[in-house]
Amino acid sequence: MSVLTPRAALAAAAQRFAFSATPRLDAELLLAHALGITRERLLLTLGDWSVPPAFDAMVERRANHEPVAYLTGTRAFWTVDLHVAPGVLVPRADSETLIEAAVAHFAGTLGPRRILDLGTGSGALLLAALDEWPSARGVGVDASPDALRIARANVDRLGLADRASVVPGSWEGTGEAFDLVLCNPPYIAEDAALPREVEAWEPASALFAGADGLDDYRRIAPLLAAQIAPGGVASVEIGSDQGESATALFRDAGLRVAVRRDLAGHDRCLVVTP
């Protein structure tokens, strides 16, 4: 067990996490997890605890750039808390832009009845959308056995087994049309420099998409119109520098496209309609 006080242990860990954009937050999340309490409770009662041995082990792993979400096994996304693990991408706040675009599209209506999530990964987009629209049902599709297992576990842990299913497949979907199609495909160029915690830990198959990062959009664009029901919309995530290049691929497939920016002001989502 560490001989440091919790406050000193957090400071020492944060110093080791200097590579992170949020070193102190990382340390607090890990200590809270090691103690089995929330971060909020930790901060309110910091002086009441001793530092458990599990924290030291987690600090060593984080210092090796392992993502915090893999260490704690959880990640908050939109209004849901998800289980995440190696084999799926860590859900990021940027991806919430896709849900925001869908909310804007369906404003003033009852919302989508049927939702499709192509390349569902952890199930983040699908399950966030189902939480947003409680009367909707949805399907998540993924080619990865790890993703299918993790997404199905998230469906169960959120009590959504009666409204969501997760099935193997690819960009062609299920052969049906949906009111809302969500998709966060791989879009990183194969020679792009990435943070070590992404490149070394997250699945390459969910990150890289050929020399220019557009290979999966080239596959998705000609398949998408048939998967969008009348009055429906697709929200497709893009890289911050792909607004023009990805838009062109979908417009060439006969689709209407608008680009939505994330909270940082970067191009992040293609809003696609037939």
Q: Which features does this protein show?
A:
single chain; 274 residues; alpha/beta; Rossmann fold; 2 domains; seven-stranded mixed β-sheet; 37% helix; 19% strand
* CATH-scheme architecture of the largest domain: 3-Layer(aba) Sandwich
- What is the share of helical residues? 25-40%
Could you tell me the CATH topology label of the largest domain.
Answer: Rossmann fold
Element-level helix/strand string: HHHHHEEHEHEHEEHHEHEE
Class of secondary structure makeup? alpha/beta
Question: How would you explain this protein's 3D organization?
Answer:
- The protein is of the alpha/beta class and 274 residues long.
- It has 2 domains: 6-64; 81-273, Vaccinia Virus protein VP39 (Rossmann fold, 3-Layer(aba) Sandwich), CATH 3.40.50.150.
- 37% of the residues lie in helices and 19% in strands.
- It is built from 11 helices and 9 strands.
- The strands form 2 sheets. A 7-stranded mixed sheet has the order 5-4-3-6-7-9-8, with helices on both faces. A two-stranded antiparallel sheet has the order 1-2.
- α1 (6-16) packs across α2, α2 (23-35) runs antiparallel to α4 and α10 (215-224) packs parallel to α11.
